[in-house]
Amino acid sequence: MKNLLFLSSLLLFFACGKKQEIDTVNKSAVSIVNYTDLPSFIPLTASADSVLLAWPNFKAFEERMKALPLVVSVPDLKMLVQELIEKNQILLNEVYPEALNFPEIKSRQRVLTTFLLKTRAEILLSQDPKLATQELVQSFNALRDQINLLTAPKLNLNTFEDDY
Questions:
Q1: Which pLDDT does position 152 carry in this prediction?
Q2: How do residues 109-123 score in pLDDT, each as one tens digit?
Q3: What is the Cα gyration radius of the chain?
Q4: Which DSSP letter does residue 99 get?
Q5: What is the C-alpha separation between 136 and 117, in angstroms, rounded?
Q6: Strand ranges, E, within 69-133
Q7: Residue 138 to residues 11, 15, 103, 118, 134: CA-CA distances in angstroms?
Q8: Residue from 65, 133, 134, 145 nearest 105 by CA
Q9: ∠ CA 128-132-135 to the nearest 5 degrees?
Q10: pLDDT per residue as tens digits for the range 4-20
Q11: 68 falls in which pLDDT band (50, 70, 90)?
Q12: Cα(122)–Cα(110) distance, rounded to whole angstroms?
């Protein structure tokens, strides 16, 4: 009976020690991140850039988004995402420039907000935010692509009519 009690206490001691080591390894692996392999940002066209000169808060948001691949730790990512959420909220509450005041832009900005919040939630839940961060960059690229599309020079189809 004494041997069984001694053996079970030894087993319990070693089992608890193993679980604690695994938890420590997982937490330290998640605290260091490498986001250099994130998708690259879609460049803005010259016409889009000239329209965005009238929207300085978007330019400020864009500059902070460009800091995303430079993040090296989860606490840094948490601070950056919180700052991006605040800047995005400012963008949502202000008046859009006339050339960009379309539902297409507003809806893509709402999707961007969703992925910002998803990234923050994964950080707060101590999960790996890599996938959510990639989706965040993709949604930002979709917004930039739509800005490029709406500010592109328009063709006048009447110039292509035949005189026959």
A1: 85
A2: 999 999 999 999 999
A3: 25
A4: G
A5: 9
A6: none
A7: 49, 43, 19, 13, 6
A8: 145
A9: 150
A10: 666 666 566 666 655 44
A11: very high
A12: 19
How far out from the chain centre does Cα 66 lie? Answer: 10
**Phi and psi at residue 7, in whole multiples of 5°?**
-65, -40
Handedness of CA 149, 118, 68, 90 (dihedral sign): positive
The Cα-based distances of 16 to 4, 11, 22, 30 in angstroms read: 18, 9, 10, 22
Tokens of 158: 């009447």
> Nearest-5° angle of CA 142, CA 95, CA 152?
45
Residue 46, SS3 per DSSP: helix
Q: Give CA angle at 127 (78, 74), nearest 5°.
A: 30
Q: What is the pTM of this model?
A: 0.76
